[in-house]
User: Which sequence fits this backbone?
């Protein structure tokens, strides 16, 4: 189904070449101050055309809020927001209409539903994440307004180039809010949203792939700062399980890890366990190998998450596919321009999914009143 | 909450040192032939004491089915199964009663619920996965009986030692059912459930860690063989999202990947995309880099999943913690014997979660009738 | 929350005086032929101003479909439909802004959410049932297209005047589809949607109440014809429980009954039980006292439901209330014109809720494929 | 499915002649003091054999709690409770094995699931309400402990005999807690759980039906006292909708009403609307025609609900049915003794469902902390 969350629920709808795309947000308590601009800002961060590594289609993605906000505040009723599609010009699809693109969900959708929207992936297009970002913008506002929680994302690896900036190289850095604000500015001013010193090297790597008519993936790190202790549930409705499901639900994601993640498989127990100590009146972990979550529940340390993003499947190179009508092998050449890398544009989407997950579990864990704040 | 699944639902209950642990399975269609023995066999696979790397507590874990099966077949009503705890002798907990164990959820539970079951982790104990395995055994039977789907798991890495057997080194191997049966036998006869040639080296690695009073993690690969094309949903209720949530919900899991996973971040689009070709009358992928899932929906190729398991947090070494009464730093020494590695025992649990997820989505995708088979 | 249904889900949003109202329909299988006109027709049936007993505000309620339908058929993706509000002129609310209207949810909303939309009830307005009707129109089409199921509603009582036409007076009548078509025409041509011979008497009753600046209630009967045997579930997700929840969810409904309903409390078991007999090759009930449902599951006989509708709470008479600012008792006089009876306008809304419920349970019971038809 | 509730969830399982029946309660916050005896007392109220109007099968219905309670308090983990079946002697079912009983769900289950438990209805038996009562007992304790809410039920009509005691004849009576305690005692000492002066007349009416080998229905009123203002939600997850779904989910229930219910259809708006006035510092309704709920949300007045209970379908009279093997009409005579009326035994079940619903919505409305109290 197209709904994410149990107590703070986001239902998204819309196709890449339909009339509009949007989301209905249900379960946001009343009295949250929020404006259309707050949400528009987040939409602008994922909009195409914002850097050299993004398709130059200059979609405006202008938000309209149709319900749920009255006199500048949420009312407790569902918030409906949408973006009308503009400039989705009817181009010539005849070449690819019956030839599913490798790496895309075209064939899958066709076999499952008996139809697919050949005009650009329909519901499987990355464009549908507009709904995620609308929902995420409200969730971000809610958790920041009530608990001063910040969510920040950046790339730590592009293709084969490792960056030099990640949480575990800089744990103390993340203890200061002003550091985080400076970091955010740095990220937003970088075309790869990468705060590493060697980001120019990464840039060249992507430019080189563009020359080869190819595409590139990467790794994104998401930090959730300020989440109180106790958010999440044991067993099945875990904080990490919900975050994992949220992130893996983004089509390009092929891997997910928390804290030390895959590296933890190589450590001894005595290396991995975070020792406790008294820090003034509260109990803290000396390290944060666990990434801020144990047994489904937040520890109070920053939550550290990483995802692997596959290279964009749309490439200009000729690829091998089949023709669905003739049932014969057929080469396919996807015209137009494509994002050579979607890592930077996925970042606000992952931040949105993190925000929705945290808002949802903070309501169900009793940290945010479900009716009004 | 303690329920997993939407259409095939497993609700687990019970604590490590309570009277019993169990599961209620709701949504299994009627007419599935199943016996207590089928379920008991799976429970035996996760039972402690089955190898040198598992605690010698010889819990019997004897299953009782109390409802939902009549005259050897499911009836369509909820299946309630449980295991009474035996031999959970009341030992002396006074030393650790007020000192949360690092790496465990003790402190988290205490801060969240205002209580914790100091007798062995209560609900956060690995022992609660008995419920997962009861549910998984029914799900395995359902998907094997109706669609001949097989789920097989094994370790591919122990501590720092990489194995030489995994799906990508042997893709053709997995095309034969008799190969899979032989593989299963090999796995079950190995104390680390590792089919690699160098498993003795891994064994030594674990024995060495035991000598050091330490513990070891590893990586597990789970293959789902025979899943038809079209299982799963776009956007939020994706096959990969549900599997991710299911696996990450197991306490020791710190990372999850599908297909090429984290490696995909290093590939070019032209390397990662699986080309299509006509194989007799059906469309197949030349490779399976995507791991059998695109856009939330199964492609018909084997589903390939990998998880990272952290080292067991219970170790005999002295560790640093705090006393919850005195609010002072305190060393903790956890007595008794512990599993130096839980990787092999987690395998049947992950297989169970995979089976429940697949059963659930096959019902909601219309592959298995929700009422009767 | 604002979502109804589990497998066929309708999420409604919007307020009476907001920018727009609408619904997102999730879980409708692909390939259902449907047009905007199909949905518009149902919206027209609940639109104000269609008879002398309805407010003369001539809202156009023009539907727009923004997603989920491609080339005249559903695609399996969420269907988003909405109606922009027009002519909700900003009138002078100063008199009633702080004085909750008796019989309305104004006070309740204010105390719960700390705000209320004084411009006409906001989310508690009957106008929000536009979303229900959009969802219901799709559901009606789905169950009619796949199983030829018809849902028909009419009033059987207006105020104190009992009608002479209901299911139990005419059980054989409902066995013919052409009878049902004629009945539908008769209902739609009657301002009270009442097929009884004495409907003129009822009309006078309402006119008399209008003269007294008062309002009138009534009883509605809903028949679901053609529902196959086996729809619904035992215990908690029952056909009757879901229908009851759906109907009671409409604000004006204060009572709900199935089959003989409250009358069944007066019968002996030997009178109430429907005997079985062989009718050609199938087993039928001689009577249908149970109203087509036993134990949560449809019997194959027509489903017979009745609801009690309270008189419209908006009346022109002076009423007693309190001022929320001064905390003093205050009289309130609600200006403008109001529906003296909403019974006829509630009928398409109840039909919609019945259709959504039946569609939802037919999918979860395996009668309609969840992916494509 | 077999789960009721969203935030306070009760999953019931078990069949009338299986090994055991029980419930898993998920979402009860930690720190609620509760004993097995608290739950056993409620089970005793619904146990057969407690009066002359109940089958003399003296099932002990001895409760066992297997998880979720530690040192006399809930722990926040799932509470698993069950009752082992005893003395379900294997009697001779050969006469009725293939002949579905009129008024029961036998035929329905058989056609839906391809099997039915001929030994006494299996999952459709009233005996499965043991699970409801286990869940309800915990919910009652939770809402009484945290908010002093009382739920009380009694019969107001037996067969054709109207009682003289109901809420609307005695609204002031219900304002005193000591009155309610006295009322409860009177109810529990009456074999029909009827506090009316003419209950002896009702008793004779049932005895007369027993002589005729027939059965009798009735009407039950349930009062929820002390529920705070604001519980419930607009639109679909309404307090009245949830209560309706909960009550209609009990097999014998054929009608449900709130407040004036069906009578409200006969009233004018000016009669039905409850006027507001200032009562010291709070706003109260002068009357409670609405039954304590408007627009999905509690008003703070007592919640008044009524249900119609059909006569017990099991009667000793010869009835007409069909043989499922021979497909011929066949008479059926159901041997053994049966409850001539189940109205009094249904009362604790309805109270349980009311308690679960209120607990669930108080958690989701922010009145009860979801984690710990």
Assistant:
């Amino acid at each position: 189904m197209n709904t994410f969350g149990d107590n703070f629920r986001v239902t998204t709808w819309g196709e890449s070449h339909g009339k509009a795309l949007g989301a209905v947000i249900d379960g946001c308590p009343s009295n949250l101050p929020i404006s259309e601009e707050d949400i528009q800002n987040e939409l602008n961060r994922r909009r195409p055309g914002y850097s050299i590594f993004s398709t130059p289609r200059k979609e405006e993605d202008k938000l309209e809020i149709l319900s749920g906000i009255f006199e500048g505040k949420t009312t407790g009723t569902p918030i409906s927001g949408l973006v009308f599609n503009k400039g989705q010009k009817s181009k010539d699809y005849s070449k690819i209409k019956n030839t599913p693109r490798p790496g895309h969900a075209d064939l899958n959708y066709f076999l499952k539903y008996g139809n697919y929207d050949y005009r650009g992936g329909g519901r499987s297009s990355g464009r549908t994440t507009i709904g995620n970002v609308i929902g995420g913008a409200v969730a971000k506002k809610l958790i920041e307004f009530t608990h001063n929680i910040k969510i920040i994302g950046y790339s730590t690896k592009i293709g084969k180039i490792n960056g030099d900036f990640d949480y575990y190289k800089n744990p103390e850095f993340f203890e200061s809010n002003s550091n985080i604000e400076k970091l955010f500015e740095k990220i937003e001013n970088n075309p790869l949203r990468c705060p590493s010193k060697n980001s120019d090297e990464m840039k060249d790597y992507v430019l080189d792939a563009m020359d080869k008519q190819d595409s590139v993936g990467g790794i994104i790190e998401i930090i959730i700062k300020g989440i109180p202790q106790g958010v999440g549930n044991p067993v099945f409705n875990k904080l990490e399980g919900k975050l994992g499901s949220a992130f893996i639900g983004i089509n390009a994601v092929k891997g997910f890890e928390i804290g030390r993640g895959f590296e933890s498989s190589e450590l001894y127990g005595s290396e991995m366990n975070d020792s406790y100590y008294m820090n003034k009146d509260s109990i803290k972990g000396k390290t944060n190998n666990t990434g801020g979550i144990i047994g489904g529940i937040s520890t109070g340390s920053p939550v550290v998450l990483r995802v692997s993003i596959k290279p964009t499947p749309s490439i200009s190179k000729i690829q091998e596919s089949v023709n669905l009508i003739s049932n014969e092998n057929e080469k396919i050449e996807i015209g137009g321009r494509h994002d050579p890398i979607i890592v930077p544009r996925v970042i606000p989407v992952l931040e949105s999914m993190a925000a929705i997950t945290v808002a949802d579990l903070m309501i169900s864990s009793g940290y945010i009143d479900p009716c009004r704040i």
Q: What stands out?
A: Chain D touches chain B at residues 1-3, 9, 11-15, 18-22, 24, 26-27, 30-31, 64-68, 70, 73, 75-80, 82, 112-115, 117, 122-123, 371-372 (CB under 8 Å). The domain at 3-364 of chain D is CATH 3.60.150.10 (Chorismate synthase, AroC fold). The longest helix of chain D spans residues 343-364.
